[in-house]
Fold each of these.
Amino acid sequence: MRRRGATLVELLIAFGVLAATSTMTTSAVLSYLSAGEGQKHLTHAMGIAQSKVEDLLVLYADDPLLDGAHGPERYDAAGAPTDSTDAYQVSWTGRPHPGLDGLLVLEVSVTWTEGLGQRSFAIETARTGP
């Protein structure tokens, strides 16, 4: 006798394989999207830090903004100042280079909240005195 179609057991196995494959695919897509969101925040933070470094590099060497710790200032993703609590927080420090007289080290740090944790990015550069 010849059978036509699939048995109930074969159908259940096929649906089980389909469900497992769908779950793995969905998990992979969600991980990819989450990583993309993190990269977007990091890219914004890098731009904000670079902009702050450029602002500090054009100041005169004796400007008080180049001496000691400053901040935090808050910026949105476009780099505009904001009062929002979920903004990027920018802090910076200026200090003399420990081994080279007349050289000032500037460190700019950007911190933001992503998911359940806090992430940060820092950039450091040096400039000469007056």
Note: The two ends are 99 Å apart (CA to CA).
Amino acid sequence: MSNFSDGFDEIDSSWQNAQPAEKKDFENLPDGKYQGAIEGAAMDKWDDGTLYIKYTVRVVGGTHANRCAFKRSSFTNDAMPYIKRDFETIGIDPNRPLKLVIEDLPRIIGTIIDFTVKTSKDKTDKNGIPVINTFFDRIVSAAAPAGARTTPKPAARPASSFNQQPLPVPPPIKPQAFYPIPDDDTALPFDL
């Protein structure tokens, strides 16, 4: 086992002089239309036991590139038609048992979508903060299905080529890993 105390003397003066970083309030994306990549999608449960689905969408361009939007939808009778609409919009067939629909969530990771962020004028959360609504508008580019070729097929070389051996086919690119969605931007590896 390493002895970490060996390095303490070298950095102790810097440690003593360092001031805690300023705490920043989380800022939501401004209202507007964006294009983003779905980075996370998962089922979860509120403290009261109600199931909900949560998504993280990272903006892929413009002045807000790399910022995240978060969408959470509770599985209540009133919300289910909207959840089904979201599934259809992002390329998941909702007309199957819910368990099968949820099993498709990892497949949409990497899907590029157009989405809209809009602050509610009349709804607030339990802390009195206006509710931020995120609406999925349409798919721009679907994520590649597992095992699908995501690189272009190499062009054939002419027969007069050096050794007349076919080019090797690169292995397929594995779909992006499925990561849990952070509850807020504090878990992101960069400052907003």
Note: Residues 26-143 form a domain with the OB fold (Dihydrolipoamide Acetyltransferase, E2P) fold (CATH 2.40.50).
Amino acid sequence: MGLIGVAPGADTSGRVSEILWVLHAASRFSRVARGWQVYRLDTRTGFIVGEPELLLLLAFESPLTVPELEMHFVTPIALARVRSAVIRFQELGFLVPQQDPSHDSVQQVTADWTKHGWRRAGEYCLATTDYPYWDYADATTAHADIEMMREYAEREPDIFRSNEHLPTDDDRVCPPPKQILSEMTLSLQRGMTRDRELSTPVSGDSLAGLMSGALGVLRIRKLRQANRAPAIRKTSPSGGSRHPTEGYLLTWGVDDLSNGVWHFCATRSVLHPIDQPLPPEIPARFGVDTGALLVLTSVFERNMYRYREPRTFRTVWLDAGHVTETVQLLATAYGHQSRRLYGGIRPEEAESWLRLDPYVEGFINAILIY
């Protein structure tokens, strides 16, 4: 890289000074304690620079030849520093020729996502697209996966598969999920036709059965590896048997179940009362005299213990989606109406109802049952 403006592998003839260089479209900046962090979303590389270097990079937001830039620096020392910095930014891939294919591709992706109001989601996509995922079609991958989990467990025990509570006299015992699924088979088949009169009042028994049928534990299997919690199989599927989704009920006017906030403890199959009063605005807000609000949350660490790649956050939504559909099928089978409340509840208010730390366990979705 003895010449300013020479790309790796470029022609070093007299035309090299005419190359238009541009700041790569995947470049982002953020203020940090020691200066500015400069990083590329698509390659997940970055470093810390001072303000002069940041301004130099920003000068290339519009295509620019290096001689055009050098015209603004008259002293030999300043010019030498600029040349050195430009060469370094070229080597690191932050300054690229205007026609660079990856720059063009990122520009197109960013424009497409931004057009739909999803710019941040587009950036997340750029940062995770080329993550080196394992190919489970390869016969050796299964052994590597087991070895990886063994190493995880040696560093940090995996003991957290379900939220637990000490038993109390106020716990409401729910029927076993296998019993619920057996009883619901015919009702579910009829319910799928959507031709039933959904006017059966919500009751404590129906809510207990619904929670067991949607979130109940079918089987617990002990794992041979040390420091590993038993694998849990529930009525709704979950990647790696992680089951990050938890279910809470806010109930009002329900026969045989007091007004309040309840958590479904899956391993004991009970509704456990949370020491938190029912928010007084809830019944009027949803316009029903008798009903329940089923709030689904995600315990993020439970999922991330196994799935540590950058896309793991999207899987908790898939997990909750399975549970949501099961809940609505069961509600129909019981003769209840149900309504998903996507966007109808702010996460921070739901988390305050349940006294949750959103960085540990956060709101995902809610279903009104009435």
Note: Residues 1-16 have pLDDT under 50 and may be disordered.
Amino acid sequence: MIVVEGAVTEAYDMQPVGSVEVEIAKSVISNGAFSSGFEVISTDETNEAGEFSVEFEPQSVIEYRIRTRKDGFYFKEEFVDREVWLPKEENVYDIQINQASTLSVQIDATSASGRVLFKLDPHSEGCIDCCKTATNYVVNAGSDTMFSCNVYGNQIIGYQLFEASSDGDSLTGQIEVKQGENTFYHKIQ
């Protein structure tokens, strides 16, 4: 029997996350050929301390897949080499998950004399659906602009704001992002 135990924690504050569905699946070798899909072999739900334990019979596999799901958090999927989890061994596998959040940024440039550039510092590492960090968002003078995008919750994201027609002054600051909907508003004076 293979037993895998671990804990699921929130990625930024490392606090345990309870009631997370943990699913283990296998990709098998069948009749000498590689399988193109995965078959679920064990599931569990984390307790209040974020702990889980799954067990399954050893088999000929190519690799294992572990998935976590919980409302309010991003879906997580990782792949584990077949040599990592072995029978009669202590198999520990800890997982960090991220809170799902949305950041709405509103820049009121109705009083600005030129274009305004807004840029977020690096954040939400590994998130393919999140705000771009290397992009300058351009707000035209005389406009009030809003954009929204996904970010990981429970983090602080730095930003830079630059008014193109000013004396080169820029403003930097931080946005505290919590789980769920978050709004940042800045009015150019």
Note: The mean pLDDT is 91.
